[in-house]
Amino acid sequence: MLNGASFKSGELKFLADFPQLTDLSLEKTSASDQDMTVVAKLPKLEWLNLYRTKVGDEGARHLSQSKSLKLLPAGETKITDDGIAHLANAAQLTYLGLRANRITDKSAPHLAKLRKLEGLYLGETQVTDETVRALVKLPKLEKLWLHDLPITDASVEILSKMKTLRELHVYATKLSPEGVRHLKVALPRCKVIHESLAQ
């Protein structure tokens, strides 16, 4: 775990000496796109935390070549729609966290290709009801964060069809009270969180 560490680009080359590494947290570090060339080659890496780093679309391109990576919390990074187009090739991903990234509906068809996703964090991005329509194609999705988005009741019918959902965060959206009630009835096995826990 290197959380909060500051290092020069390229200094993570030492990680190549740890091929058995399965978990790596670089949260709030100075990790760069170039550093991802080393990280992507770790043969057993399954969990990579990039939260609040400067890793962007080029780094996402490198990471898309990993065959082992399953869990990728990458919120508040520089990854945009172009990076998601690359990550769509990482078909083994089971969790993708993109909180507060510059992600728009252009990413919808790429996200829909990640059919092994069990968790997807899109809160505080720039997606709309259009992206929600694409997510119905994800057969294993259990946890979905859509808070702080302009999601409307137009998404209720689609979300209601996603019977695998067990946790749905829709606070600070444009969903009506009626829409939320409909979701709770349609998804009895899902915890629908419509009020911010911070309130």
Rg value: 17 Å
* CATH class label of the largest domain: Alpha Beta
Biggest sheet character = 6 strands, parallel
Order of helices and strands: EHEHEHEHEHEHEHE
Instruction: Order the strands across the largest sheet as they lie in space.
Output: 3-4-5-6-7-8
CATH architect. name of the largest domain: Alpha-Beta Horseshoe
Globally, the shape reads elongated
How many beta strands in the DSSP annotation?
A: 8
What do the pLDDT scores average to?
A: 95
Indicate the low-confidence ranges by residue numbers.
Answer: none
Strand content: 5-15%
Structure class: alpha/beta
Helix content: 10-25%
Alpha carbon gap, first and last residue:
32 Å
Q: What is the name of the CATH superfamily of the largest domain?
A: Ribonuclease Inhibitor
Plain-language structure description:
This protein is an alpha/beta fold and 199 residues long. Helix content is 22%, strand content 12%. It contains 7 helices and 8 strands. α7 links the parallel β7 and β8 (191-193). The model has no long low-confidence stretch (mean pLDDT 95).
Keywords:
199 residues; alpha/beta; Leucine-rich repeat, LRR (right-handed beta-alpha superhelix); 2 domains; six-stranded parallel β-sheet; two-stranded parallel ribbon; 7 helices; 22% helix; elongated
